[in-house]
Structure formats: structure tokens, C-alpha cells
Amino acid sequence: MNLVEHLPALQVVLPLLSAPLAVLLRHGGIAFAVVTAGAWAAFATAIGLWLQVGEVGVISYHIGSWAPPWGIEYRVDRLASFVLLLVAGTAAIVLPWSRASIEREIPRELHYLYYAMFGLCLAGLLGITITGDAFNIFVFLEISSLATYVLIALGRDRRALTAAYRYLIMGTIGATFYVIGVGFLYLMTGTLNLVDMAERLRDVESSRPVLVALAFITVGVSLKLALFPLHQWLPNAYTYAPSAVTAFLAATATKVSIYVLIRFWFSVFGETLIFERLPLPEILLLLSLAAMFAASFIAIFQDNLKRLFAYSSVGQIGYITLGMSFDSVSGLTAAIVHLFNHGIAKAAIFLLIGGLVLGLAKPGGAPPAPTFDRLAGLARRMPLTCFGIVIAGLSLIGVPGTAGFISKWYLILAAMEAGQFWLVGAILLSSLLAIAYVWRFVEVAYFRPAPEAAGRQEASLGLLLPAWLLVIATLWFGLDTSFSVGSAAEAARFLVKVGG
Amino acid sequence: MENDLVLRVVGKLLIPFILLFALYVQFHGDFGPGGGFQAGTISAAGIVFHALVFGLEQTRRIVPDRLVEAMLAAGVLLYAGVGVAGLLLGGNYLDYFVLDPDPIHGQHRGIFWVEAGVHITVCGVMLKIFYMFASRSQRKDDEA
Q1: What is the DSSP letter of A446?
Q2: Domain that holds residue B66
Q3: For B87, which of A1, A19, A62 is closest by C-beta distance?
Q4: What residue in B sits closest to A19 (Cα-Cα)?
Q5: Which residues in chain B are closer than 8 Å to A6, comparing Cβ atoms?
Q6: What span, in angstroms and rounded, lies between the C-alpha atoms of A41 and A52?
Q7: B144 to chain A, minimum CA–CA distance in Å?
Q8: Which of A336, A446, A452, B119 is the most exposed place for a label (fewest CB within 10 A)?
Q9: B90 CA: distance to closest CA in chain A (Å)
Q10: Chain A contacts of B90, Cβ < 8 Å?
Q11: Among candidate residues A90, A106, A42, the one with its CA nearest the CA of residue A344
Q12: How high is the ipTM of this complex?
């Protein structure tokens, strides 16, 4: 057996195997070791795949040795390998962090189930990204979504249950829409393999069932990626889920859905249909602008820090979809690079908030909600945690030297390239809203006096180290863009060329 | 229902046949309608029937919670294990052709174990759901 040859299968199988093993072993500590090992193995595999794509180009792996289009094909191109790295990397960092945090947030007898669900969610997200089969995407979508609902419901706050239930309803509608769309496509093309489907669609492109399929898939996936008016499930789910779950989902779940939308729009339906014959770019542009302004505006008035950054996520997704709406290499580069940059910045923020609420908790007690009145003067007590949030917050604003600046820079370039100069103003104006909500945290944590004089009481090293790793990554990718922008530009060139 | 003599006698008679029918559906799945999923639900239905007639506590003694949870995971592990076996024998993941020197026989062998995995997991999930809901209503009765 040649290991390198089988990397695409191992990418999904290793985390998938770790989940039932965790259930069988029934011990929190052992389950933690097994699932973390699975996530690290997945991260190593993702690095291997990324390097392999650089050498040989697109990798195609035939599950069960059945050749596509009959069998299920795993297909790794630059975009897929980039997203795989983001998902597996986030899991590899969040899992070790979560050990100390779920100790206080989740009853001990449920720990092994938490790790099992985490493993399943990771396997599902990796599967969606790597597979080249439309129905297989649906299967993995369900695996990751069902695991996600459980993970959210594990939150301590009772409202976590209603948040998870709401997400379950919305997510199921999204998945059903997606599968209806795939059904129409199968009806018209007789194939489920994405590459094969794209070729066959050219003959029947503008027939009504194909347009219906496009509508169903776009709306279904938009629900999962929380595109502006369909984002209602997101704030509560992020606010009440356990801290580690919020960090993992914010960096991966919506991003993988965006990946699916890019895949279908650019690789399957093709740019001619999406961008020339239909008014989709205009619609997407409007919704993106609405997200950038409305969601960021709502974020400013939130009282709960987690909720504030949840709304900020909806706004930041607006930037990603804005990049998609240009139908140009630079626009798509901006979208893909922001998908990555926003993912690591948000994961860092939610991990740090997780450490922060653990610091606020009474000894042995459950961590309280991070409302602003509890955060007053906290920078003196937890300087490193607060400073990390500020730096990652600067990335959300797009300050030069952080990763967020790079994405906004490319976004502005794309807008100017398209000749829409007013959009440059809109992007800058919406960044002002980001300054406002990040400033609210700075003001409360740094300038408001603490209610009682407390000494320095920083989060433990196990909580700080993974989070700061991500904070440093936000700075690193703001200065050295050869990996992030390089991968994104290569992926964008490939996608735009394929459709055109 | 626990005191109904007719039900108890009929139940005792029927349950072995229900379980046997599950195995028939399982192994006939290659040639006709059926397979691991359907067979898993049928065998779970047999056990649920037992719980309805003889009471949940009796059934829990025969099929304990721990076993149900182990079944849940073991089936998935068996399924994935078949895939890994294909890898180790030199094929791709889930490659059944390499499971036996004769590729057609290899296909049979692969699907046999995969369906067995599906059966175990589906049966486990059905029972887990049933146990959870059934013990919930009991707890409420205790409170009342």
C-alpha cells in the first residue's frame, strides 16, 4: 500500500474512524486522545495533499476502484486542498484547546460523546470539500450538520437547545433544497459526478429544470452559509454553543458551504449561465452589501461579546460573497483569501473569548455569558487574552499588517477592476462599522474600571497557546501572503478559466 | 400489557421468527428487496416488541444500554474497516475486488461485511432512540 496514493481517502477516513472508536472506548481522556490524533492525522494529510496538488495538479481518487462517472470520485484541486487545510488545521488547534474548556462546560459523562461528535463533524466537513460527487456532498453535509446540531445543543445555557433546534430546522430545509436541486440535475444529465455533470449541462443549460435546480441549490447552500437574510439561525447558535464548538464552526462550517457554492457556480453551472444570462451577480451584490452593513450595524448594539462577533461573522461573509459576485479572477481571489483569513481570525477570537469566560467563572462553577458589564477592566486581569482579541479584531477591521487587510485590498482591487468605484467607498464605510464594534470591546476591557480590584489572573497556557497560534497566524498572513494569496489566486485562475 | 397472557404467549412465539426474518431480509438483500438497513430495523422491532410485552426493564436486562451503544459504534467501525481492509490488500478505499483472489467473490465478501455493519448500527440506533424515549416517560410516571 502506497500511503501517498491514498491520501484523499485517508483525509476523510481517519477522523471518521476516530468517532466510533471514541464511543466504544467510553472514556473522556482516551476519546480525547483518539479524536485529536485523528484530527492531527487529517491535518498532516491535508498538508500532504496541498503539496501533492502543487506537483501533479488535480488529484482524482476512485472510491472502491469504480471509475468515474459511475463510481464516487474524490477530487482535489487547489481550492479543495486550500479549504481542507483550513478545516483540518482549525480542528487540530481547537481540539487540544477544548479539553480544558469542556471540563467546565459539559457534564463529564458526556465528554466522550462530545469528542465523537467533533470527529464526525470534522469528517463530514472534510468530506464535503474533497468529494467530486453531488450526492456524496449531500451525505457529508448531513453527517456534519447532524453532528453540529448535537454539538451546539451541548451548550450550558438552556437556550442552546432552542438555538440548535432552530438551526436543525433551517439546516434541514437547506439540505433538502440542495438535494432537490441535485435531483433536477440528475434528471437532466443522468450523472452525479460534478465534472461529468458540468460537461453534460452545456447541452441543456438554459432549460427550465436546470434553472430550477440552480435556484434550489443556491438557496439551500445560502441557508447553510448564512447569506444575509438567511442568517437567522447563526447568532443564537454561535452564542449558546460551547466555546470550542463556536470557534470551530465559525472558522469552518460556513466556509465549507461557501466552497460548495463556488464549486457549483463556477465549476458546474458555469459562469455564462450565472453571470451573463441571469441577474445573480446583482442579487448577490445587493445581499452582500446588506450583510456588510446591516449585520455589522446590528453587531454594534449587542450586549453579549459572543453574539457581537456572531453578527460580525454574518457581515464578514458578505465580503466573501461580494468577491464572488464580480466574476473575475481578482474578485474570486479576494473571496477565497477572505474565507481563509476570516476563518483564522474568528477562530482566534472565539477561542480567546472561551478562555475569557473560563477566567470569569467562579472556581469550579460554570462559565458565565460574556456580557459587557462583566468585562469591565478585564484587560488588567487577562492582558494577553484581551490583547489577542484586539489584534484579531484589527484583522476584522482590515488594518494593514493583519490578514484582514490583504482580503480587503484584493476586494478593493476587484471592485476597481470592475469599474465600480462606489463599492470601494462602501467597503471602507462598512469597515468603519467593524471599528465601532471592536472598539466597544476595547473601551469596556481597557478603559472602564474593574468593579473590584483583582490581580492578574491570566488564562492557563493550554488555553492561551492554541489561541495565540491563530492570532500570530493572522499577523503572519498579513505580512507574508505567498501561501494564502498564492493558493487563492491559483484556485481562482483555475475556476474562472474552467467556466469561461 | 404485561399481564396479558395471550400477548405474552404470542410474543414469545413470534419474537424468534421476527429475528429470523430479519436475517432472511439481511442475506436475501443481494437478490431481492432488503439489505442491512431494513434488516436492522426489523431486528430492532423484534426487541422493541419484547419491551412492549414484557416491560422495558426485562428487555434492558437482555439487551443492556452499554451493548446498544457499542453496537452503534461497532457497525460504523465494521463498515469503515472493510474499506481499510481494501486499502491494506492493495486496492483503493472500499475496494472489494481485492478482498478475495476471485474478484467477483471479493465483491460478495465486501458487501456481506458492509451490510453486516449497516445492520448492527441501524439496530443499535433504533434501540437507542426507543430506550431514550421509553425511559423518559417512565421517569415522568415516577415523579407523578
Answers
A1: I
A2: 5-143
A3: A1
A4: B73
A5: 87, 92-93
A6: 16
A7: 24
A8: A452
A9: 5
A10: 1
A11: A90
A12: 0.89
Q: What are the domain boundaries of chain A?
A: 279-500
- Closest in B73, B87, B96 to A6, CB measured: B87
Cα–Cα distances in angstroms (integers) from residue A156 to residues A95, A130, A161, A367, in the given order: 19, 33, 9, 9
Domain total in chain B: 1
Q: Min CA distance, B7 vs chain A (Å)?
A: 36
Nearest-CB residue to B80 (from A16, A26, A61)? A16
Hey, are the CB atoms on A64 and B86 less than 8 Å from each other?
yes
Q: What is the pLDDT along chain A (500 residues), one digit of tens a residue?
A: 678 889 999 999 999 999 999 999 988 889 999 999 999 999 999 999 999 999 998 999 999 888 888 889 999 999 999 999 999 999 999 999 998 888 888 888 889 999 999 999 999 999 999 999 999 999 999 999 999 999 999 988 889 999 999 999 999 999 999 999 999 999 999 999 999 999 998 888 778 999 999 999 999 999 999 998 899 999 999 999 999 999 999 999 999 999 999 999 998 988 888 888 888 889 999 999 999 999 999 999 999 999 999 999 999 999 999 999 988 899 999 999 999 999 999 999 999 999 998 888 877 777 888 888 888 888 888 889 999 999 999 999 999 999 999 999 999 999 999 888 899 999 999 999 999 999 999 999 988 887 776 677 788 888 899 999 999 999 999 998 889 999 999 999 888 864 44
- Cβ–Cβ of B95/A61 closer than 8 Å? no
**Shortest Cα distance, chain B CAs vs residue A24, angstroms:** 6
Helices (H), strands (E): how many in chain B? 5, 0
What is the secondary structure of B17-36 as a DSSP string? HHHHHHHHHHHHTTTSS--H
Closest Cβ opposite residue B96 in set A13, A19, A64: A64
C-alpha closest to that of B25 among B13, B11, B43 = B43
CB neighbourhood size of A1 (10 A):
11
